[in-house]
Structure prediction request, 74 residues.
Amino acid sequence: MPAAGAALVLQAAGVYLPPLRALLGTEPLPPGGLAVACVLSGLGHIVMRAQARLVPERPPRTGSAVREARRGAR
Prediction:
């Protein structure tokens, strides 16, 4: 999680610090646009959590199950 936090800080710096804005050619978001971006990014997190609960991952196949699946595909 520290890497994600560092990435967020660096992205915000590139958008909101004047020297970096001039270097990167970015513009700060207005408050409404920033709110929309935050809500949509949070929505992505909620969807991923719901998907993990609704569609659990299947355990990986073992060697014998893979061989049997290959035989059945022929």
Notes: The helical segments are 2-16, 18-24, 31-54, 63-73. The chain has a mean pLDDT of 84. The radius of gyration is 22 Å. The CA atoms of residues 5 and 27 lie 21 Å apart.
